[in-house]
What we know:
This protein has three domains: 7-174, P-loop containing nucleotide triphosphate hydrolases (Rossmann fold); 189-270, Rossmann fold; 276-415, Rossmann fold, CATH 3.40.50.11410. The longest helix has 17 residues, at 399-415. The N and C termini lie far apart (58 Å). It is globular and about 75 Å long. The chain is of the alpha/beta class. The protein is built from 16 helices and 14 strands. The strands form three sheets. It has a six-stranded mixed sheet, sandwiched between helices.
Amino acid sequence: MFRSPPKSFRLHIGLFGRRNVGKSSLLNAITRQNVAIVSETAGTTTDPVEKPMELLPLGPVLFIDTAGVDDIGALGELRIQKTRQIFDRTDVAVIVAESGIWGEFEESLYNEFKVRNIPILVVFNKSDLKKPDEELCNRLKNEKVLFVKTIASEQQGISELKNALISSAPEDFINNPTILGDLVGPGELAILVVPIDKEAPKGRLIMPQVQSIRDLLDNDAMCAVVKERELRKILEQLKIPPKIVVTDSQAFLKVVADTPPDVWVTSFSILFSRFRGDLITQVEGTLAIEDLKPGDKILIAESCSHHPIADDIGRIKIPRWLIQYVGGKLEFDIVQGNDFYTDLTKYKMVIHCGACTLNRRAMLNRIMHCKRQGVPISNYGLTIAYSLGILERALEPFPSALETYKQKTKKGVANK
Length: 416
């Protein structure tokens, strides 16, 4: 059965603007479906409305229609907060303005996306009522920001809008990075160690495992999938050793013990630190574990909203390993899904999951928030490997990250 690509692999296109400028009408016109409710009443869109679709030649995209950023009252403020959460996962920002009207709200959106280095596309909707300001159009041209004129209610300008969206796609989406393809060449073998995760739906593997298998196949590499107790057996049966062994982090110690020293070994979570985020920054953040003291607060962040089990890796195992490492009690807070605190200053570090359900822009923004507030950020695989004393081994496939780790740890030893 065909399954559509997960949200994390889609280009996220956010529609932003005042209330009643026609954002929902534009979304319906682009998708040719009544996805969003359209009304003359301002503030009809209360929560972000998401619509996945294919936009050739880009492929899978996710349109996000947001509430107006000029909403009023207590409920309006909550809507604005929801809209601002979308900023962090937007790959292309579409600012929708009523033609001829460009004021404080539009300018603040424009500047926000400029600071974040997010590609901007300006849509002057309802262009039959008034022409866009000529001086503003010249400014947009000078700043190399695309703009189009539309009448969404009559499907006018929609073809030009789609072409502009295609032209606005960021380079790092078009040249999508690979999970394993640069590590395992055509005809080479990767062994994936997959413990049967109790939190995964029955009959399925968890998302990083599935995505890694597909990535290897896309890059003409070979793949063998085993449970942790079968790794040694398959290694003994192979005439040619694999290029790499990748494991779920919870089986790290056993897998490292069973893998020959001349074969790379790492975890899915560490691979996704590189694929979805910034591996070097998170390696640096991992070293903050060495400075933890009893009583320190740590934020555990999960991008998905799975139902936790008795021995949950983020809620139980990682806290247990860190408490053992530090030798005293630590305090842990948990956030899930799209929730992520804006004020992180009370935490000594943030430990994030592999972020397989986030798009890369969202994960990089979370890392940026941590860096701006001086809070180190690690991830599950890096934290587990460090706590167990095997991080250097787990970083061998990634020379830059390994060199960073070695330099930082040497400086740490020298300073002590």
